[in-house]
Amino acid sequence: MALKPATNPEVEAATIELTIDGRTVTAKDGVSLYDVIASTGKIIPAMCYHYTFDPFGSCGMCLVMQEGKKAPVRSCTAKATAGMVIRTEGEDLFQARKKAVEKHLSVHPLDCPVCDADGHCELQDMAFLHGVTNLANAKQKFIPEDTRSLVLDFNMNRCIACAECINVCKDVLMIDALQFMKKGGFNQVVAKGDLPLACEFCGDCLAVCPVGAITNKYSKYRYKPWQMKKTMTTCNYCGDGCQMYLETKDSEVIRVTSPLSWKNKWGDRAETAKGHGGLCVRGRFGFQYLDSDTRLRQPLVRKANRLVETPWLETMSALVSRLAEIKAMHGPQAVAGLITARCTNEELYLFQKLMRAVIGTNQLDSSARYGHLNFVHAARRALGVGRMANDWEDITKAKAILLVGSNITETNPLTAVRVKESIRVYKSQVIVVDSANTNIAKLASHPLLIKPGTEGLFIDGLVKSVIDQDLVDEEATGQHPEAFAALKEAAAGISLEQIADRTGVAGEQIREAATIFAEATRAIALCAEGVVRRANGYQNVLKLIDLAWVTGKLGRPGCGVGTLTEENNEQGAVDMGVAPEFLPGQARFDDPAARERFAKAWDAPLPPVGTGATLMEILARCRSGQIKALYLVGENPLATLPASVDVRAALDRLDLLICQDPFLTETGQLAHFVLPACTYAEKEGTFTNLEGKVLRVRQAMDPFGESVPDWHIMTAMANGLGRQWEYETAQDIQNEIMKLLPGYYNLGQPRKITPKPEASYLSNGYAAEVKSRYSSNSTQRLGAEHNHRFGLTIGQVLYHSGKLSTQASGLIKIAPNTGRLRMNPQDIERLGLGEHAKVRVTSERGWVELGVEADWAVMPGTCFFPEHFNQPPVKDLMPVEVDPTTGVPSFKFAWVNIEKAGG
After folding, report:
1. Contact 365/618 with Cβ under 8 angstroms?
2. Ramachandran bin of 462, using left for φ above 0, alpha for ψ from -120 to 50, beta for the remaining angles
3. Are 671 and 403 in contact (CB under 8 A)?
């Protein structure tokens, strides 16, 4: 750890000069000598080195001669000092490095023909580079292969004890799941305690292994590296937007690899603030759904109440005729559409254009409605921006991070690595506010466990504490004295003692958290599903913005309020205008100038203002019979929403239900037309991640069966309805978007935006708004909390993302649906439950019976079930509350009774 603080902006190391191969070089005092040499463009061999973690010095390859020393020194662990004179080349150094290679090979099995790393092995490369052709004293280790892990096999005969796997796990990911253990006379890498490896399975250890010591169970013995086509693309699981390589052979996905590998071991350590190039378990091991046998191969059309495989031409002809008939008979307001935010930007753009400019309806929405739009509306209202303004580097270099309602290590694992680096390298104070003892809470300086559902109250307490302790930034509040006076008056009615009692967090801890956030030079507040996907999500985001405003954390470098997106392109869905309130570019749908611009560009009038409908309104209009036809692209509301929404009744009333999806979903089984769509691996386009980066999606394989990209289907539908769309490639759609939204396609770089409290927001009606904002939570009834004993949450887990990941056999192998409720062991014992006992869980919406499993992360008085699974239908216990401002439905939390089944 001693080397990295040189990158810390708070600690400016002294600048020194040293000589390398006769050339004077400037460097920072105390950094790795190897880093200094690499910065000159000179790359010397090093098999245990990687710039993302601290040097280990085990391989003996990075030898250099230092003036004044007789023996070569290991440059990776040597620290640069002023006046050093270094030589990096020479016959003596070549021979010393060759001896190091021979030493490793002497106990290394020469099983290259069967090794997965053959042709992609650093030891192989080093042997060739140094002319190693004969080994006089070679001997085998004869260590049995460790195949106990679910996804990784450990062949320690091949291990060179470089410790890269151990170091990336401990130093970068802060998981620390691996260790060296002396067994059979050799140092071996084993899981902690020499048990079967059970970790987060990110596979970064596999990525950095320079030989074939760690292998991927899913692709073992199935390929040689040169046999595969390697395509760089963007992961489609969460909003982090990680870059990855899909490696395919013929029509099959063999494996997924990452930019992080021993091949990219040379870089600037300061650049790790922008990411380390790794992946999470979903990205690396959740690829099997791409070529799954359960994929749809051909269109299905309902005939005699059965779905029958039908050729595309016949299917589209019948579909378009039926859609045109409904529009002619009932008008465009009889048609609506929903689309998943897992589609590309280009497809999202075409979807809303199809609905508005071809069909003539503004009844459309995306899965961003499930929570992200709470943040978007709050940020636009208060700050004039419609996305998070901070990027990964801001998070990494923050001095204080406030995480509210976010199990970040499981929902957004690579953004979590930025938080981890902020802790480890930049000594950030991290305040975690959650009702579960999450992995990030265990690493945080200030883990604050709150009672479920009280996130908004806790934020009230922070605002109250900042004002009471006079931690207010006078420059920020002085520009809007009336607004600040209104906020101060609203906060005066808050009782910190009551908040402490309701949240379960002591008042002193709330005050300390407020002080840390207010006094930090760079502070960021991040909220996620525990805020934006819960009741009052919109108001609670505004409270976080209030907190940031009064503490001077808006518009300043490295400061701000942000959110984490669950699906990969939720931000893109909003930016492309897939919401009845927005046109592309987040232009207001009722803005006359914007309406005129898009109507002219699309050569079609836009639907009238006031006729739009959001997700929940669309379903209500389906139930009432107002909407006759519903077009679903990748959306499965029957499996997503609780039974109380009565999705089935809404779908049953439809004259036409079109489902476009890679799989036959629960909703698709009720459809009149089911259209097989491609996955992201079979098409071109872009995703926009949570930082605002627009990232390339590249086609890695041919379409599965007769599936086609979503935009192809939309184009065919538009042309069938009488328009002449002439898009031939995704680039054609991009070109149109670029004309309408100049600057949006800033590929790979976040578009910098500077949020600041809008003068109109703070002056027009703020006083009345802020008064109601802080009175609602303080005076709300406890309601069901009085009558029920447990807080039940359904939410995300690390190994799954929505329902899509449940189609990946690898992820199901790692994390199957146990069908059991997670409870704290103390509660299980208190209820007298045995190992195979079942419980009845009862809410105001009904009851289910299921087993239980112990989980220490779940706090006493709470329970948890993964939202990715519907068996048993725990989601149907959830009450649904729709935000009156944003139309976001919240259904992730309920108060329940739990009793032993049959008791």
Report:
1. yes
2. alpha
3. no
Residue 328: how many CB atoms within 10 A of its CB? 10
3-state SS assignment for residue 569: coil
- The answer to whether residues 197 and 214 touch, using CB atoms and an 8 Å cutoff, is no
For 557, the token pair is 């470098």
* Cα separation, 114 vs 430, whole angstroms: 47
Does 51 score more than 70 pLDDT? Answer: yes
Distances (CA, A) of 215 to 256, 488, 517: 13, 59, 44
Encoded tokens for 6? 């040189």
**Cβ(629)–Cβ(655) below 8 Å:** yes
Strands 673-676 and 656-661: parallel
Quote the longest CA-to-CA distance of the chain. Answer: 93
With contact defined as beta carbons under 8 Å apart, do 198 and 191 qualify? yes
Residues facing residue 675 across a β-bridge: 660
Nearest of 127, 121, 129, 123 to residue 225 by alpha carbon: 121
Can you tell me the distance from the alpha carbon of 744 to that of 750, in angstroms, rounded to the nearest whole number? 10
Q: H or E element: which one contains 770?
A: helix 766-779
pTM of the complete model: 0.95
In order, the DSSP letters of 603-644 are TSPPPPTT--B-HHHHHHHHHHTS--EEEEES--HHHHS-GG
The encoded tokens of residue 506 equal 């002591």
Encoded tokens for 121: 């092995």
Both tokens assigned to 126: 């080093």
Going through 51-119 in order, the beta strands assigned E by DSSP cover 63-66, 73-74, 85-87
Q: How far from 169 is each of 177, 179, 192, 208, 430, CA to CA, in Å? A: 7, 10, 12, 10, 21
Both ends of the chain: CA-CA distance in Å? 56
pLDDT in tens, 422-438: 999 999 999 999 999 99
Amino acid at the residue 616 = M
Distance separating alpha carbons of residues 794 and 877, to the nearest angstrom = 10
Q: What is the CA radius of gyration of the chain?
A: 29
Beta bridge partners of 186: 183
Question: In Å, how far are 181, 273, 274, 857 from 419, measured between CA atoms?
Answer: 30, 10, 11, 20
Name the token pair of 90: 């020479």
pLDDT band, very low/low/confident/very high, at 783 (cuts 50, 70, 90): very low
The DSSP output letter for 899 is E
Calpha distance 732→727 (Å, rounded): 6
Angle between helices 766-779 and 455-468 (to 10 degrees): 120
At 89, the amino acid letter reads: E
Predicted confidence at residue 9, as pLDDT, reads 47
